[in-house]
Design a protein that fits this description.
105 residues, mainly alpha, 3 helices
Length: 105
């Protein structure tokens, strides 16, 4: 009977570039949650929510979450090696460090 380790199977199936893309997408989803918190607090404040300090705290926390997750997603995308021939062309960075969004080149 063969027992397979979970790490061995995952390591065999997922490349490092794929892991970086997955990590970036999860960080961006978390940032979207922070954005929803900010927008919800602003809307509640605009409609006359009586808890102004709580709304300001939610706006600050949501903004912090958006910025933090955006930076983490950018760092995760930075892990993709530009010299890797198997890297998806849509995620390669140009000489200025900007992500080329498009196919081909």
């Amino acid at each position: 009977m063969t027992i397979y380790s979970h790490e061995g199977i995952a390591a065999a199936c997922i490349r490092d570039d794929d892991r970086a893309l997955i990590a970036a997408s999860l960080w961006l989803r978390l940032g979207f949650v922070g954005l929803i918190v900010c927008v919800g607090a602003v809307v509640a404040l605009a409609q006359g929510w009586p808890h102004v300090l709580e709304a300001i705290a939610l706006i600050a926390a949501g903004s912090w979450l958006v910025l933090f997750s955006w930076r983490r997603a950018n760092a995760a995308l930075g892990l993709i090696d530009e010299s890797d021939p198997d890297a998806p062309p849509a995620w390669r960075r140009n000489s200025t460090g900007a992500v080329h969004v498009g196919g081909g080149d």
